[in-house]
Each structure stands twice: as C-alpha cells, then as structure tokens.
Amino acid sequence: MKRGAPVEDINENSLVVKKPKTHAAGLEAVVVALDRGIAQAGVSRTAKSLLRLNQRDGTDCPGCAWPESQGHRKTAEFCENGAKAVAEESTLRTVTPDFWAEHSIAELETKTEYWLGNQGRITHPVVIRPGDTHYSQISWDDAFELIGEKIRASTPDRTVFYTSGRTANESAFMYQLFARSIGTNNLPDCSNMCHESSGSALNPTIGIGKGTVSLEDIHQAELIFVVGQNPGTNHPRMLSALAECKDNGGKIVAVNPLPEAGLFNFRDPQTPTGLVGKGVDLADEFLQIKVGADLALFQALGHLLLEEEERVPGSVVDHDFVAENTDGIEAYRAARKVIDWEETEAATGLSRLEIAKVAQMMVASKATIICWALGLTQQPHSVNTLKEIINLLLLQGNFGKPGAGACPVRGHSNVQGDRTMGVWEKPQEWMLAALDKEFSIDSPRAHGLDSVDTVDAFVNNNVDVFVSMGGNFALACSDTELLEGAMQRVGLTVSVSTKPNRSHVKHGQTSLILPTLGRTDTDDKHPGGRQVLSVEDSMSVVRTTQGRLDPVSEHMLAEPVIIARMARATLGDDHAVDWKSMAEDYDVIRDHISRVLPGFQDFNKRLKTKNGFVLPNPPRDSRSFKTDIGLARFTVSPLEYLTPPEGHLILQTMRSHDQYNTTFYGLDDRYRGISNGRRVILINADDAVDMGFQDRDLVDVISTFQGEERRADNFRLVVYPTPRGCAAAYFPEANALMHRELVARESNTPGYKAMAVRFIPRAEDETPQLS
Ligand SMILES: Nc1nc2c(c(=O)[nH]1)N[C@H]1C(S)=C(S)[C@@H](COP(=O)(O)OP(=O)(O)OC[C@H]3O[C@@H](n4cnc5c(=O)[nH]c(N)nc54)[C@H](O)[C@@H]3O)O[C@H]1N2
Ligand SMILES: Nc1nc2c(c(=O)[nH]1)N[C@H]1C(S)=C(S)[C@@H](COP(=O)(O)OP(=O)(O)OC[C@H]3O[C@@H](n4cnc5c(=O)[nH]c(N)nc54)[C@H](O)[C@@H]3O)O[C@H]1N2
Ligand SMILES: [Mo]
C-alpha cells in the first residue's frame, strides 16, 4: 500500500478462512503494528507518536480504557491495536474540500465504512444544505452561526447532544454544561450502548457505578475471571497484566462462547521470549458457555459455594465482611439453596463437573476478581447477570482488599471520564445543583434521552438538531435502515469528527462536519501556548494526555474550542458562563471542575504529579458502600437465559481484530482466521447441518423480535467452534438486524448479543459486487 493512497473497497467474494489461532500477540503483532503505522503516517510520525504513547507526559492511547502501569513503564507501552488506532489518526491522508467536490452523497452511499474511513483526516469544515448533492466548504464563523441559529429556533427538548467516548474530560465537561445551559439533559453517549448495564447493576448493589480494582490488584489476584470479553483484540495490554498475575501464581478462568486466542496464550511482544518463545499460558479453565447463559452459571456457582460453606462452615463465606457491610444474604442463601442441574447444563452447555471445578477454584481463592465486558452487558437480562457477579464477590468479601473486586473493562478510552464529567441523560441532583451554583445557570431537572430513546426520537420526528461529539451514531445503533432514514429528516446534524463516516452520508437536511484535533495532534493555538487535556481510565486513574504531532491541517479546531464557539453562537457573549476563557486556557475548565465534582479538588495541581491521581472509590478504599441503605446488597434474580425460537439461532455481534467499533483498520481478523471479508456468520457445524447448510454457503439473514422481522442480505456462513444454538457476526454489519426495542431491562442497553436469527439460502449469482 502506498502512503497517501487510500485503499480499494471490500470485495466480499475475496473472503479467506483459516484455522483460528491459539495464541495472541508475538512478533506478528509488532510487524502488523509498524506496517500499518508506516503505510498511513510514514516512519517519523509513527516513531514519534508510538514512543509517546502512554508515557507520563505523553498521549493517552485512543484505543481502549485499560490503565497504564503506575510503576515502571516500558519504552514502548502500546499494543498492536493501540498502534493501529494511532496510525488511523496520525495518517497523512487527507479529506479536503476537493474530496467532497469529487464525491457526491449518492456515490458515498455506496461505499463501506472501510473505504470512507481510509480516505483520511478531514481538513476543513464542510456543509450540505437541502437540495445539495455534495458537501462544500464553509467558514468556521458561518458554521457556528448556523448552529446557533438552528438551536435557538428549536426548543431544548428537540436538541440532542451525543458523545462518543474519546472526548477528553475538559471537553466533556464543557459539552454537558452547554447542553444544560440550553436547557436539556438530552446527552446520550456511547456508554448507553456499552457498559450502562454495569452501572445499572453496580450502583444499587455497591453504591458506585465503576469497577473496584486497580492494576496492582490484577497482578496480585489469586483468581481472575475473564467473562464475555475478548482482551486479545479489544484490550491487548490487559494480557500483560494477566500474564503478571499468572507469574505471581494466580489462576485464570475464561468464560466465552468463542475460544478467543487471547484467552489462552500471550506472547508479549515487548520481551525477547515473547517475540520468539512459547509465551505464557493464560486460562487455566475455559468455560465455553452458550450466549446469554452467564446468569445460570453464576447462580450455579453461588449454589456450590453455599453448599461448600454448609459442609465446612467458615471455609467460603467471609462472615465478618458480610455481617458488617451487606444486606440480604438470607434471601440470597434461600434462593440459591435449590438448583435444577439439568436445566443449568442445558442452558449453559456446560457440565456440572466443569462448573464444580471452577467453584472449587473460587473456594480455594482468598482474592478473586471478576472482569467482564460486552458479552455480559448487551442482553435483556444483563443487569441481573451482573448483580449475580456482585453476589459472588460479596459472599467471599472480595472488596477493599488486595487482589479482589469487580472489574467492568470499559470501552472507549475516556468513556468512564465522560460520565464522571456529567455526560449523562439522568444526572443526579447534587451535580446539577453544583453546576447551577458554580455557573449561575438553571440546569433542567427532567431526565433526557439516552441512545435508544434518541433513535426513537429520530423515528418519531422529535429532533431538530443533533450534535455528535465524535462517533458514528448511524452505524453504532440498532435498526440501521430505519435510523438512517429517520436521521435524514432531522433539521440539522452536526458531526465533530476526525474521519468521514456513514453518519456524514446519512445526514440531516442540513449537515455540518467539523474537523477536530485528535489525541495525537498538538493543540497549541492558544494565547497561553500548548494545552493538555485529561482522561480517566477503567480503574479511575485521572491523568494528562497531549499530542505531539503537527496536525495535518491548520483548519482543525480543538474540541473545547468548538464547544465554546457553539455555545457563544447559541447563547450570546453575555451568557453567565465564560466560554471564551475556558477555551483559551484549559486550566480554567479544570478549576471549575475542581469546584463542581467531588474527588477533583486541586485538579490542576494534582494532574501535574507523576502518575496523575486516583478518584475516590469507597468500596475499594474503605469497604464502604454508598447505597441508599449504606450497605452492599445481595440480590435475588430469577433464572433467565436465551432460548432461540424453533429454527433460529442466537446471534451475538462482536468486533474483528482489525476494527475500532465502526472504523475498520483493515480486513484481517487474524486470531479467528477470517480475512478479506466481513459479511460472515460464524455457525456451529452441527447447526449448519441441521439447518440444511454447508460451510461457506451464501445466505440472507432474518431476525425476529416480538413478531417483527428485520433482514440483512448476503452473508456467508463459516463453520466455527461456537456452541450449538449460538452464532456470531461482526458489528456493525449485523446492526441492520437489530430491532431497536431489543434492549437490556433497566439499563436500556441494546441487546446486541441476543438476536434470534434464521437464514435463507441465496444463489451465488445474486451477490451484488461492492464497488
Ligand atoms: N481494537 C479495538 N479495541 C477496542 C474496541 C474496538 O472496536 N477495537 N472497542 C472498544 C469498546 S467501545 C469496547 S465497549 C470494548 C469492547 O470489548 P469486548 O467486550 O471484548 O468486545 P466484543 O468484540 O463485543 O466482544 C465480546 C466478547 O464477548 C463474547 N460473548 C458474546 N456473548 C457472550 C455471552 O453471552 N456470554 C459470554 N460469557 N461471552 C459472550 C464474545 O464471544 C466476545 O469474545 O473494546 C474497546 N476496545
Ligand atoms: N451490533 C453492535 N453494535 C454496537 C456494539 C456491539 O458490540 N455490537 N457496541 C456498541 C458500543 S460498546 C459502542 S462504544 C458504540 C460505538 O459507537 P461510536 O463511539 O459512536 O462509534 P465509533 O465507531 O467509535 O466512532 C468513530 C468515529 O469517531 C470519530 N472520531 C475518532 N476520534 C475522534 C476524536 O478524537 N474526536 C472526535 N470528535 N471524533 C473522533 C471519527 O470520525 C470516526 O468516524 O457502538 C455500539 N454498537
Ligand atoms: Mo463501547
């Protein structure tokens, strides 16, 4: 691939399938990482950005939210996929006004996300108005004026402010302040689609919506569960932490329908033995569970732990902890007393023996951590599944001691920080009161729209202005076809973006694309010189991030500047909030934050210390649980799992090794052995036979939800070691199959890992050729 030359689009007929791998990383990871970097950005930008990644005064990796070591850092503290995220952003390819003049919307509609994203960084603000066929350049002044005009012409409840989780703390704080100054809590974010279920389970049970472990805890744990997570791809630096835990004598249990390579063996590319040797074996036990059956598994484990406690009193339950800090153990004990093993085995696809073996590991462990990600958060009963995890942790007193706790592994690199900063459609009263006091504004109290509500609001023509701080709403959400149609009816869509994506193509009647600086870009056009931003990782550590590369265009603005100018254009220069000072000097934003948010006192000063600082975490710091009753809660949930209707399979959607959400770095899902194509359905060999199909058959897919169907055509079946009854496809191709009402109860997170699908054969010659 020539640097600067964007790629060809995907040809699904070139699909290649090989045997899945059983180890992650190694030399190949380094080769791929450097290759991608150099192809996009050249040698010097690649070296400059990668060496600064995750260093103390460097750039927080825009990849995932896994924390950096507080102690010694390696010269190169990054992983293959972090390097790809950086290559994607630091690319020298550019999307200039000429690009928009050359390609009409009609043409761009035929392109895949792979092609769009690979065109490069957007260099100038552009606009498209009703009747236009192409985007064209607009000045920043005119763009802001247009935004102000449209927001003022609307009512607050018809304006929506979406955030994708790359936005730094300071920008997120200003953004929610802007929405609230206008008078709306319509602040949907990617967290609604991601770990909202975790927050919904953790807040009422342990009194905080975040994880309770540090990186050091991962190293020290005696037993770690990695559940519903593919760390080899989505959090590769987690593998080093797991390897360190193994080194210290810890054990690992992996729970996943798929035998993901990163769960089994890790060849650390940052050590000589990792590059060429056998690597470290990770999972001691692998429970290949059926999709959606984790609640059944955790209930069975609860039953076995309590059974053992009855047999040898004092051997399992941490009675002092339970008596002092928790409520509800009696009801939990009673509910777990009986178990239907036949049903449990059928639901999970696991044997009683396998489950008992893992229960024994829990009994033997004095410090257990349970990690989870989207495999647990995106199903109708997700919140109850996660509450069941908390039950297990509470039983053995696994809070507030080294090597123990709950670990939701977050997604976007600052998704946790954005929420801390108040990007939430359901803000708490204390936060609004603090905002009102600090800024003399009158924040609205009524709750706003989350991501799923926003899709509904689009469909029902209830949105006039949609502002998107990063992200790709059209493709990230459910019901792609319906949503895209509905988004096109919105009066004004504003995308603050780095790269072209589908949401720009399926734009509102008038649409603005505003190019912004990314994490790796220097941000120095300020009276006081270069500015730094801050982020919060998955383990509540807050630290600085600053880019070191010259931006590829002088016309891009930093996110805080864009927000301030939108606010001034909308609210006028005499508004109570001094937007201008905040955009000029980010210390001013941080001073405000320090007075509004608990845990941020002396923000500016503490941010400048070596490792940043850790936010207060009552369960972790002092075994205190700030729930409404001041105690942690055991909960009782009914047994629930997913049963596909006759002739259907349960479809989960997941990320390939070569993508970042809706952005595709390349077409090589290397660990799973699938390359050059993405429209695939992984299916168990016996299910394929039962349904009358063969490996590599071409099918159209139909999903069923409450009597309604959705359809997505032209997928290839790939026989794969997934459990019976459970299929898998890539996100976002499968989002067209997602009914928007299929959600997790309580959290309203889409059930992206819980669709019921069937297939109809498709003749080979029907295959439309993509570009
Ligand atoms: N390189 C890269 N890094 C990323 C991202 C990316 O796209 N690319 N995305 C970021 C974001 S926003 C997020 S939220 C995270 C996502 O991180 P992950 O949660 O790891 O992402 P998914 O690819 O959705 O993988 C879900 C895993 O859960 C398993 N699974 C599915 N259903 C079930 C189930 O019912 N039970 C169990 N036990 N397992 C199940 C799947 O087989 C798969 O291994 O990663 C972040 N990091
Ligand atoms: N079927 C299915 N659907 C899912 C999921 C799933 O597992 N299955 N996962 C869900 C999850 S967990 C998430 S988090 C969402 C992801 O949803 P989003 O966060 O909305 O999507 P991304 O693909 O991460 O957004 C990519 C775009 O962000 C912009 N961008 C990149 N960096 C920056 C930056 O620094 N600043 C700004 N302003 N813009 C930037 C680029 O223009 C790029 O096109 O998708 C959800 N959808
Ligand atoms: Mo996410």
Automatic annotation (TrEMBL):
Pfam families, from UniProt? Molybdopterin (PF00384), Molydop_binding (PF01568)
Query: Any idea of its EC number?
Result: 1.17.1.9
Q: Domain Molybdopterin oxidoreductase: where? A: 121-412
Read off the SUPFAM superfamilies from this record: ADC-like (SSF50692), Formate dehydrogenase/DMSO reductase, domains 1-3 (SSF53706)
* Gene Ontology MF terms in the entry: 4 iron, 4 sulfur cluster binding; formate dehydrogenase (NAD+) activity; molybdenum ion binding; molybdopterin cofactor binding
Q: Does the keyword Transferase apply?
A: no
Q: Which cofactor does it need?
A: Mo-bis(molybdopterin guanine dinucleotide); [4Fe-4S] cluster
One GO CC annotation? membrane
Q: Which UniProt keywords apply?
A: 4Fe-4S, Iron, Iron-sulfur, Metal-binding, Molybdenum, Oxidoreductase
| Occurrences of domain Molybdopterin dinucleotide-binding (ranges) | 649-755
Query: Quick check: keyword Cytoplasm in the entry?
Result: no
Q: Extract the InterPro entries matched here.
A: Asp_de-COase-like_dom_sf (IPR009010), MopB_CT_YdeP (IPR037951), MoPterin_dinucl-bd_dom (IPR006657), Mopterin_OxRdtase (IPR006656), Mopterin_OxRdtse_a_bac (IPR010046), Prok_molybdopt-oxidoreductase (IPR050123), YdeP_MopB (IPR041953)
Enzyme class at the top of the EC tree: oxidoreductase
Q: Which domain of life is it from?
A: Bacteria
Q: Which family does it belong to?
A: Belongs to the prokaryotic molybdopterin-containing oxidoreductase family.
Q: What is this protein called?
A: Formate dehydrogenase major subunit
Provide the organism lineage as a comma list: Bacteria, Bacillati, Actinomycetota, Actinomycetes, Micrococcales
